[in-house]
Each structure stands twice: as C-alpha cells, then as structure tokens.
Amino acid sequence: MKDSHRTFLCISNYFKGSAFLTALKKAGNTVYLVTSEKLRDSNWPREYIDEMFFMPGQDLDWDLEKLLLGVAGIMKDTKIDRIVALDDYDVEKATFLRENLRIPGMGQTTGRYFRDKLAMRMRAQEAGVLVPAFSALFNDAEINHFADNIPAPWVLKPRSEASAHGIIKVFDKESLWQNIHELGDNRMRYLVEQFKPGDVYHADSLNLDGKNMFCTVSRYLATPMEISQGGGIFRSANIPYGTHDDKAIREANKLVMKAFGMKDGAAHTEFIKNKEDGKIYFLETSSRVGGAHLAEMVEAATDINLWAEWARIEDAKAKEKTYELPKVSKGYAGIVLTLSKFQDPDLSGFDDPEVCFRVPLDYHAGLVVKSPQHDRVMYLLDDYAARLSTDFSTVVEQEKVKKFH
C-alpha cells in the first residue's frame, strides 16, 4: 500500500529532535511523541505533534511494561506503522516495543550493538575493525589475564551509559581490582579496556537499505570524556576532505554500520587515532543523531540537516518511496560550548560573520561557526574557547554535567 500517510510513534526521554518531528509531520504523517513527564513543559514543536504521552522517570527509569500497555492501548484505535527512538536511552524502549508489537525496524538483538559497549567491541572485532584491547568483567581469570598481558593504563567503562560519564581510569592491577570490588554486583555492567591516547573523531552518517548515504568526519578538540570529568570547553570541527584520516574513518564507519546491522537512519560513531601507531580504532556508536548540537555544526558545514533527513528516510521506508539525499556542500564548521555561570549569557561580543548558530540553552554558552576555510574555523574555535573560558565558563559537580545531549 503506497499512500501518503503513516503513523509514527517517537520516543524521547530528552528534549531533542524538533526538526525530526516537524519533518515527519510536514510529510503528511500522524506524529505521536512519548516523553518524560518532567519534559511536559519543554518547547516541543506542538503544532507538528498530533498527541503527546508522558511517562514518569527519565533515562532508564521508565517501566517498560507500562509503556507497552500504553502503546498497545493506542493501537486499539490507531495502527502504528513505525516506532523511532530519538535518544540513546530510548533504543531499548523502541526495540522492546517493536519486538512485542511486531512493528518493522531494529529489534532487540541489533539494538544491543548500538547501546552495549561490550557487544559493540565484540562485534567490531569479529568484523575486522580495530578496537582497543578489552575484557568483560564476568570472569576473574579473564580479568587477571587481561591485566597481566595488556599494558596499563586502563579504563573501566559502563556498558550502557550514553556519554563519557562513569568512566574510571586506573593505572595498575591493584587499583583495577579495588574498583571492580567496589562495583559489587554491578561489575557485570562494565568492561575494562586499554586506554589509548590519541585524537578522538566522530563520523555522523545517514544510512538507507544498509548502505551509507552520507557521512561527515569531525574531530573533538576537547573530548567528551575530558568535559564530563573535568568541565571545560567542548569543541569539535569537521576535518579536511579527502585526507588520509577522512578516508580511513569513513571506511571504518562503513564496516561498523554493515557489521552492526544498521539498515536505515542516523548514526553517530566515535573512533580514536592512536598516537603510538597512527591507526584508527573503533570506540563506540549509536543509532541516533549526535548530541551537543553537533547536528547544527554538521548542517553548517554540509547543508545536510541530519534530523530532517533521518525523518525523510523513515518516511520513505514506511511509504515504500525512493529517498534522495539533497546536494551536499563541502564547507567547514565547528562548535564551541561550555557550561555558563549565567542563565542567559550575552554572547553579542562574538560577532564575527562566521557565527551561524547560538546555543539556546539556559546556563550554556555556545556557538557554531562556518567558513569555506578550515583554518579560519580552527582559529575562531581557539579564540572563542579562550574568551568563553575567561568570561563565561563554570564548573559544576560532575553529576550535573554528565550529558551534553
């Protein structure tokens, strides 16, 4: 059946994805949104949402059985054609609903590759993608074998956190075991991995029918791990096109998407270029648009709005239509973002013509700049980072800065 209308149930426990919801509605669909009760008053694009439903709790707190019963209740009167998870924490919810309600899309097994860092590493390794040496924390003998054979330092990582929050860096076997014992029964939810110093990159991509339609490669100038554990200035910029790193990361991203079973939609994947051997290693991926306003940065560089194009892909798949990617520009853009000591910081002094977006969040100071020249973007990011650090930045307790969505 190829008509012009479908019903989409979108899930987001965080305020994001307005461009996605808007594009879906403009394509002639019914759009439902399930979100957290605490986000009821957020500035959702309500004119493009047919109905909103609210769940208590946030992140992993939702009662999945209650969610299932609620969605099943909707389906008594309305056929839901597609379920879309807009944030990392919603992937499990969406795969759970799809499996139970037999709705097309990513199932629970594939979903784990985009949420569980242990499953990611095992699958990437099987596919021939380089990954830092790692071990699960299930078996004491395996942990000891890892610690005795893989040089420190190491990092203990939560398997399902959606950010760098919760990562513990250790430098010797005694400290490793001390931290594992402190985790108690929670140890099974972590892994240990060799820490490889180097530059961290992210590949932001769109995929259709198992093929990579669009990908842009950027480098974090301050990594999410550094920001989450020490505060500071978050920065990222897309790298020069056609360079060795650009080509190598694009190719690695294709391998990861194929191995993990990504069929349709957006993905945000991180890699590290090891300083010691110069090779590209896989770190993690997610089946969503990158957070921290990276979508605005990507759009400034390429003219591709990841949220809107993801919605167009979902719409095309649901209606069995052909999707065509708009023309991609090859410009350069970067973002600089920090937590601000002011609720509504006055950034009027940042008035260079390259400024194209200002982050509209309370207690955040951030801007996106774009230019045909990569060097100009890098100069502005360095200059702005220094000025923001002096006049606006603040450091709050770690629990409050664990996610730059």
TrEMBL record:
<dbReference type="InterPro" id="IPR052032">
    <property type="entry name" value="ATP-dep_AA_Ligase"/>
</dbReference>
<keyword id="KW-0547">Nucleotide-binding</keyword>
<feature type="domain" description="ATP-grasp">
    <location>
        <begin position="121"/>
        <end position="315"/>
    </location>
</feature>
<dbReference type="InterPro" id="IPR011761">
    <property type="entry name" value="ATP-grasp"/>
</dbReference>
<keyword id="KW-0067">ATP-binding</keyword>
<dbReference type="Pfam" id="PF13535">
    <property type="entry name" value="ATP-grasp_4"/>
</dbReference>
<dbReference type="InterPro" id="IPR013815">
    <property type="entry name" value="ATP_grasp_subdomain_1"/>
</dbReference>
<protein>
    <submittedName>
        <fullName>ATP-grasp domain-containing protein</fullName>
    </submittedName>
</protein>
<keyword id="KW-0436">Ligase</keyword>
